[in-house]
Amino acid sequence: MASPSSPRRRAASRAPKSASLATIAATAGVSIATVSRIVNGLPRHASAETEARVRQVIEALGYRPNQIGRALQQGKSRLVAMLTAELANPVMATIASVTEAALRDAGYVMILCDTHDRPDLQDEYLHAMRALVVEGYVLATNVRSPGLEEFVTRGERMVFACRPNPYAAEGTAGAFLGIDNAQAGRDAADYLLDRDCTRFAVLSQANGSPASIARALGCCERLRERGVPKGRIRDIRAPGHSHLAVGYAAARALAGRRPWRGGIVCASDQIAFGTYRFACEHGLDLTTANPLISIDGADLSAWLAPWLTSLHVPYEEFGTHIVEMLQTLWKGQPAADHIVPYSLRAAGAFPVDDLC
Amino acid sequence: MASPSSPRRRAASRAPKSASLATIAATAGVSIATVSRIVNGLPRHASAETEARVRQVIEALGYRPNQIGRALQQGKSRLVAMLTAELANPVMATIASVTEAALRDAGYVMILCDTHDRPDLQDEYLHAMRALVVEGYVLATNVRSPGLEEFVTRGERMVFACRPNPYAAEGTAGAFLGIDNAQAGRDAADYLLDRDCTRFAVLSQANGSPASIARALGCCERLRERGVPKGRIRDIRAPGHSHLAVGYAAARALAGRRPWRGGIVCASDQIAFGTYRFACEHGLDLTTANPLISIDGADLSAWLAPWLTSLHVPYEEFGTHIVEMLQTLWKGQPAADHIVPYSLRAAGAFPVDDLC
DNA sequence: CTGAAAGCGCTTACAG
DNA sequence: CTGAAAGCGCTTACAG
């Protein structure tokens, strides 16, 4: 190791200094304004010779505009904050990934903040992002927090993915992007009914997000509607932070009494995975005798869980939608809710080629 | 929708304006410098009464320091860039997640950039991050690019997770964080040998990353070393961008001749997942007759792939290590490589409680 | 076509 | 204890 006082230490202790507009201007013998105009490709910026000279200097010194200086001047940062509930969840990772790509294409840089569904972290990040003067917020979290309420009432430009805005004012454009969760629950019920199930288990998270509650409720509602007696519906709401753990616990509850026989609806892929693990360990039957359907249908599931039938939410398209919604906000218009369709992805039926 | 010229439009078209240091100073009747000192908790910043008055104004106006102004002044942004090869890969998502948490604890904000393993995107991001004056770079990509070479030679502060620095100078501290990949391959070989396998398949990606090549090579090397004849080793390098597709293709090649009988080493979890999907569809036997071991052992695998035995890389600890390495760099010292140990995670043996 | 100057929000010596 | 002033890197009217 270099000693603390060695010259080497000094040299390496900060990032290599890069040239500024002023440096370029000085060595090219023009004004800062001129260089700025050239860099930004403004209309009648400079004579051909001046431009050539300046460009040469820029090239030679490897100049790149400092975004911080620009951001301070313009009052906008080209930064968008994305707050995710839990990046470890593949669904969240997918949303983050596609949003990042769409924002990049639109010329923005995404900052990803993992709130771990903790209100304190959520507020910490919200404030840190405001301090960075981000131009918009994408929320994929379901937690209430004072900071979020404050931001909503202050009119910050936010889009809500998957989970609706918990502080949305009545009759306001919610800027919500997602599926009709209640309807998805109903469709899951129909799927099992059409396969002649007579007993039903609905697995969801206790005190879950509004979205996941809506799925479970919609499902139970539909079952009753189609004449299933209450006694034939097991509405299991298992505790746990991770949906994996929820699914495991729910499956345990399900298998607890006598061997289960009937259809199973999991409010999310992750819950289905937890169920699956329990099934592997303790022999809960997940074959055609007990058809299982989940809601999410993430791409990874098509690989890792060929046994899984699910209502596939088109997360791969969320990035584009999110950017469109942000652009609406940036135009000063309220962003309407955006309800996307889902589709049935049958077990094992998804073609490999589409996944590569 | 509000008409384009409605007053509403104007009102919403930019973020709500927030108070500046100057505003606070003016309404509190003190100088900007005084407010700054109070906000930053500097030693003898102000008299008790002044401070009280200023704090009151800050509270009333909801003032938060603008990080951009501060960054410009101090020449540091408290931002760290993380470049990931592919966020859709759960291993990458895990690394991103833990790094984000560790950086936050250290007072930094992480910007996540998904390069999709494309050199052009990698360079685009590298330059965008430099423009943001980030204080460090975390690379979890394996792509060579002109920009990366430029950054390395310029001495930017970077750490390399999982994939070594492709432009590291001889005998230089590489700032690499990861496992001994060749040794992991060797250990995987030993695992199968100890289970009395006599035939072996080694599944990896054609033209893969140095890390994954090292795993496959180490494995083959060890097999030969322990006397396995070349004809009993099938070294399958399948093409494909995603490791899932690679695993699928490799399994197809493996099953192509006669029914496979022997041990299987997958260079990564994802390759094992692809193999698994092929096995489910086409009946490749993955039970004890054909023991399979992969390298990675991501937490998600413990849930979704209870059938999988793997050498578990402690990705959950990567965040802490990455921050330590960055802090070494920030002190002006070179960051040594950091080789972490891995451990065997046997199929189905991982306790559920540890995963919640 | 080109430049001098103001100002974005902040920190930090330097005076008093 | 407190303030006036310079300056971080940039853009943008405003002159010429």
Describe the structure in brief.
The structure is a homodimer of 356-residue chains. The first copy, chain A, is of the alpha/beta class. The first copy, chain A, has helices at residues 7-12, 21-28, 32-39, 48-61, 67-74, 90-105, 119-131, 146-154, 181-193, 210-225, 243-256, 269-282, 299-304, 318-330; strands spanning 79-84, 109-114, 136-140, 158-161, 176-178, 200-205, 233-238, 263-266, 292-296, 309-312, 338-339, 343-345.
Could you please describe the fold and organization of this structure?
The structure is a homodimer of 356-residue chains. In chain A, helix 2 crosses helix 4 and helix 7 crosses helix 8. The N terminus of chain A is likely disordered. A six-stranded parallel β-sheet of chain A has the order 2-1-3-4-5-11, with helices on both faces. Chain A has three domains: 52 residues, lambda repressor-like DNA-binding domains (434 Repressor (Amino-terminal Domain), Orthogonal Bundle), CATH 1.10.260.40; 132 residues, Response regulator (Rossmann fold), CATH 3.40.50.2300; 132 residues, 3-Layer(aba) Sandwich (Rossmann fold), CATH 3.40.50.2300. The first copy, chain A, is α/β, with parallel strands linked by helices and 356 residues long. The first copy, chain A, starts with 6 loop residues before the first helix and ends in an 11-residue tail after the last strand. Chain A has 14 helices and twelve strands. Chain A is elongated and about 85 Å long. The interface between A and B is large, with 85 and 85 residues. The structure holds a DNA duplex (16 and 16 nucleotides).
